[in-house]
Design goal:
This protein is an alpha+beta fold. The protein contains 6 helices and 5 strands; from the N terminus they run E-E-E-H-H-H-E-H-H-E-H.
């Protein structure tokens, strides 16, 4: 048996939103660090990783910046969810299919992932999403139209939904 070790690379970049981090493996993006005040704060969240950027990390950073400035609606860089399996992976994969400007409830996302009735567990799986924005968990809302949660905070979730023309939410958005 041959052991394969995926070398990870890291890229830090700044936007009007703050400093971001993108970590890539040879298979895809493994982590997106949401905006922080300084590059040092981003590095603390990423831990020890090679500090050379790969073309894939550069492409992801460019696509995220285009998205943040309203010039891109679809992010196409590959995501590496290799560390996830079972329920969490099904949820993240279903979430990745939610289109720009669409919101669905936690229960609707669970249904789409074939896990009907698992809205609470869906929220927990999304809370562990290592690649927010690329897997757009900010598009998931409560059945009552509330924002629910978001690892970047509710203000950022509101701002992302506003960017996509989905804030304020209409009652029909709860799915």
């Amino acid at each position: 048996m041959v052991a394969v070790w995926a070398v990870k690379t890291l890229l830090l970049f700044a936007s009007d939103w703050g400093w971001w981090g993108v970590e890539a493996s040879s298979r895809g993006i493994v982590q997106v660090v949401l905006p922080q005040r300084s590059p040092h704060q981003v590095r603390k969240q990423l831990g020890s990783v090679e500090s050379s950027a790969s073309l894939l990390a550069e492409e992801a950073a460019g696509q995220i910046q285009e998205y943040l400035y309203g010039r891109r609606q679809r992010l196409t860089v590959p995501v590496d969810l290799e560390l996830f399996s079972g329920f969490a992976r099904h949820i993240l994969e279903a979430c990745a299919q939610i289109a720009y400007g669409e919101t669905v409830s936690y229960s609707e996302l669970a249904r789409r992932a074939g896990k009907e009735g698992a809205a609470r567990a869906t929220g927990q799986a999304l809370g562990a999403n290592p690649v927010p924005i690329l897997v757009p968990c900010h598009r998931i809302i409560g059945a009552d139209g509330s924002l629910g949660g978001f690892s970047g905070g509710l203000e950022m979730k509101r701002r992302l939904l506003e960017l996509e023309g989905r804030w304020p939410l209409a009652e029909a958005d709860s799915g």
